[in-house]
Amino acid sequence: MSRFALIVPHYGSDHAAIDFINDFECYSRSSFTLVFVSNQPISKELRLYCKSIPRLRLLEELKPGSYFARNYAIKQCGLEYELLCFTDSDCVLRENYYSSVESNSSKIIDQYLVAGDISIYDATGDANSWVLSYEKIF
What proportion of the chain, given as a percentage, has pLDDT over 70? Predict the structure, then answer.
């Protein structure tokens, strides 16, 4: 059984969802379950793809907004996991994210909230994009 749940709200294309799920498969450890919450109806293609992934819980919360999606996932998880972790489906986690949570869990388990450094980048690589401009200014 997994010790940690990574709760990820998603709104967007199946391609973006599959990219995140693939990264989870590549870099996560067996101590993690991905709780992927779609904020839109889940397509047949995505449901079919996700059936082959054993540590994935695919949920659907049709009330718009990532907060509704996260809260729904928390209710579904109950007290099943030692630690609930949160990110968004358009975030790119560092390769050591999962091992860092795992190795530091004994230090953070009594904490109410743990957060880390977030760097913003534009996947298109456009140096003049508004995303990178915002990152430079703030």
Answer: 77
